[in-house]
Write a structure and sequence with these properties.
- This protein has 77 residues and is mainly α.
- The chain has one domain.
- 69% of the residues lie in helices and 0% in strands.
- The relative contact order is 0.06.
- This is Type II toxin-antitoxin system ParD family antitoxin.
- It comes from Brevundimonas subvibrioides.
């Protein structure tokens, strides 16, 4: 792992310490979790925009949704 040093105002440092003690063992782990979540949200937004900009391929009617539910029911992990 790489080390990063940041400067925070006292109020943010206090908030970081409080959240870290609630959720994680140390502030670095909490910040790492926040950054991973940010990466996931950015990727999710990219996928949503990609889907929104893609061409429509057929009608999403009741039969389509039923086939989607059936695929979900039969999915194995």
């Amino acid at each position: 792992m790489a080390d990063v040093t940041i400067s925070l105002p006292e109020d943010l440092k206090a908030y970081l310490d409080a959240r870290a003690s609630e959720d994680h063992s140390e502030p670095g782990a909490y910040l790492g979790a926040l950054l991973r979540r940010d990466q996931e949200l950015r990727r999710f937004r990219e996928l949503i925009l990609e889907g929104a900009n893609s061409p429509v391929e057929g009608e999403a009617d009741a039969a389509w949704f039923e086939s989607l539910r059936e695929r979900a029911r039969n999915r194995t992990i």
